[in-house]
Specification:
Blueprint lengths: L31 H16 L6 E3 L9 E7 L6 E7 L4 H20 L20 E5 L2 E5 L6 E4 L5
Antiparallel strand pairs: 1-2, 2-3, 4-5, 5-6
The protein binds zinc ion (ZN).
The site of zinc ion has 6 residues, from loops.
Length: 156
């Protein structure tokens, strides 16, 4: 035996080293493009203290051109579908799911005092912001005057 453990020794103790890249996927059944589009929206939901839905892929749409899932409240009493058109530019996908997640959040907040999520800083008692694609990014904008307020995923 001439083999020795050295810096050039090619040992792979436990299989494919690629498997260690990235965290384990906790939403394995949700399409990667849908999960990716939802991520900045959920960041905004979390940052603003709004209720955060659970994402469950139960295949409510058979459309092969889109990925779908359900958004559920914590106790499962309130659900709404969300979908993303596949192979569209990411800003469009983020904008698309932002509008759907916004509907869920507003429904979830129904009956409380703050249903205008996310709140328009220019008209805080009048309307929520609206997700639009502008200058290559999904942005929350004032629906009245079109003023972009923040890139989706950067709300505070
Ligand atoms: Zn406004």
């Amino acid at each position: 035996m001439t083999a020795a453990i050295g810096p050039t020794e090619r040992t792979t103790p436990h299989g494919d080293p690629l498997a260690s890249i990235g965290p384990p996927c906790q939403r394995a059944r949700v399409h990667v493009q849908l999960a990716s589009a939802l991520a900045p929206v959920f960041a905004d939901v979390t940052a603003t203290g709004a209720p955060v839905p659970r994402v469950v892929d139960d295949g409510w749409s058979a459309d092969p051109g889109s990925a779908t899932a359900m958004l559920w409240s914590g106790d499962g009493s309130h659900g709404a579908g969300v979908s993303v058109p596949l192979d569209r530019p990411r800003p469009e996908q983020v904008c698309h799911v932002a509008a759907m997640a916004q509907d869920w959040v507003i429904d979830e907040l129904c009956g409380t005092t703050a249903t205008n999520w996310p709140r328009c800083p220019h008209h805080p008692t009048t309307h929520p912001l609206q997700a639009v694609v502008r200058d290559g990014a999904a942005r929350w904008s004032c629906p009245r005057d079109g003023t972009p307020v923040a890139v989706v995923g950067t709300l505070r």
